[in-house]
């Protein structure tokens, strides 16, 4: 006797390829994330936006009055504020993505036991990974839109190409979020979480955020160019004045690879933790 239609549907779903990893229902994770934001997280959500804005005001306006014009991408002379603003936009996107994909994930994983509960349902680890990464991207998008608005108010947007700054910021956020969640899954204590800040601070300071790569000795330059933020900074600067080179595609390709590897890494890590 054949199984009833509902049972047949369940059996078919269970035998689909990759059904244990991906149930095609990441929207359930996303919907929960928005409900949490609406109820309690708005102040926390926007707080990280102000750090790069303060850097722009203090360094770009304050120090910029002493520095004057500097050489931008393609040799174009620009103000110091216009030089560091796109870099700080990349930092803003990174901050939003890292916060959401590290501390938030840490609490959900170790205190709320949220992911264990999700995986007892039909959700798979890729659903959870994509849902959480999307929420980190949403935060990065808000920061990018807000910071781009600040740049516009300060008169630092001078080309229509600057419209691409927002999608480029989302790509930067995607790259950091995809790795942030996987790295956090290895953290067991608050002290270990401090290692994330310890690593992110030098990445922020030494990714040619405030001065060109050429100020470093050549061996250090190779190290800096391996940092993901450096690629985001260079990409943002090129977009901000519309000066594109073949290196532009290298920066985009770097993040594309980072996203693919990061999502696969996070999915595999969640599966190994909770689906033994």
Give a brief rundown of this model.
With 276 residues, the protein is mainly alpha-helical.
What does the model show?
- The protein is mostly helical and 276 residues long.
- The protein has one domain.
- It contains eleven helices and two strands; from the N terminus they run H-H-H-E-E-H-H-H-H-H-H-H-H.
- Strand 1 and strand 2 form a beta hairpin.
- The radius of gyration is 21 Å and the shape is elongated.
Key descriptive features of the protein:
two-stranded antiparallel ribbon, mainly alpha, single chain, 11 helices, 73% helix, 2 strands
Compute the separation of the termini in Å: 34 Å
Q: How many structural domains can be distinguished in the coordinates? A: 1
* Shape descriptor: elongated
Low-pLDDT segments? 1-17
Q: What percent strand?
A: under 5%
Return the average pLDDT rounded to an integer: 80
Task: List the topology elements.
Elements: H1 5-14, H2 26-47, H3 50-67, E1 69-71, E2 77-79, H4 80-110, H5 114-119, H6 125-153, H7 165-184, H8 190-205, H9 218-224, H10 228-241, H11 246-274
Antiparallel strand pairs: 1-2
